[in-house]
Amino acid sequence: MRRNIYRLAGAFLLSTAGAGLHAAAVDPGLPHYQPAILETPKSASYQTPDGAIAVVGYNDMRHMLERQVALFAATHPGIRFSLDLPGTRFAPAALARGKSALAPMGAEFTPPQLADYRSVTGSDPIEFRVAHASLNPHALSGPLAIFVHRVNPIGMLTLEQLTRAYTGKATRWGDLGALGDWAAQPIHLYGVERGTPLALFMQKAGLGGQSFARGMTGFHQSADVVRHMSEDPLALGFAAAMRTLPSVRALPLARRAGEEPMALTEENIMAGRYPLDRHLLIYVRPPLTPVVREFLRLVLSREGQEAVAASPQGYLPLSAREAAIERAKLD
Question: Which of the listed CATH numbers 3.40.190.10, 3.30.470.30, 3.10.580.10, 1.20.120.660 matches domain 145-270?
Answer without folding.
Answer: 3.40.190.10
